[in-house]
Write a structure and sequence with these properties.
By secondary structure, the chain is mostly helical. The chain has one domain: Double Clp-N motif (Orthogonal Bundle), CATH 1.10.1780. The chain is 61% helix and 0% strand. The protein is built from 8 helices and no strands. It starts with a helix and ends with a helix.
């Protein structure tokens, strides 16, 4: 009984950290609400290391995911005829305090990540970064999917590697 409560508390702490870090990553990209790509970056930051293990299992450099995201934003701007800024949008770390203490807001893809995590994580095992990787790798559309594709990552293989890392 107490083990289940402890694991739920661990998962709650992980969710809090994940949301705070996703928000930080979004702000660095001048986004008001974090999307799936920011949750994946946040998962790569989690101390459990399972997200990075999943990336390594498929031969992907987790450290280059942020740059792949930035390239997707730049390509989207070019596609509509706007030249992206030449200065890096990745600024210094900011406080994750947000604007007030109201409800947490995420972009549509970020909400999709959180809903999928809630739906798929019904057991009492603690939430890990690999669980986030599996959810995001399963998404067919969006910045995260395009960034993984640009990196040459097979999303199906990444999802399987993440599921293996979560079980290990």
């Amino acid at each position: 009984m107490f083990g289940g409560i402890r694991k739920r508390l661990e998962s709650m702490r992980t969710i809090r950290t994940l949301c705070q870090q996703a928000e930080l990553h979004a702000r660095r990209e001048a986004k008001q609400e974090p999307g799936a790509e920011h949750f994946l970056l946040a998962a790569l930051d989690l101390p459990d290391g399972t997200a990075r293990v999943a990336f390594a299992q498929v031969g992907a450099n987790a450290a280059s995911f942020g740059d792949a995201i930035a390239r997707q934003y730049d390509e989207a701007l070019r596609h509509i005829g706007i030249e992206p800024p030449t200065v890096s949008r990745r600024g210094p770390r900011q406080d994750a305090g947000g604007a007030g203490g109201g409800l947490y807001h995420a972009a549509a893809s970020g909400k999709q990540v959180m809903q999928a995590l809630a739906a798929s994580h019904k057991d009492h095992a603690p939430l890990l970064g690999a669980h986030v990787v599996a959810v995001v790798a399963d998404m067919e559309h969006g910045v995260a999917a395009r960034a993984l594709e640009a990196m040459g990552v097979d999303r199906g293989a990444l999802k399987r590697a993440a599921e293996d890392a979560a079980r290990a």
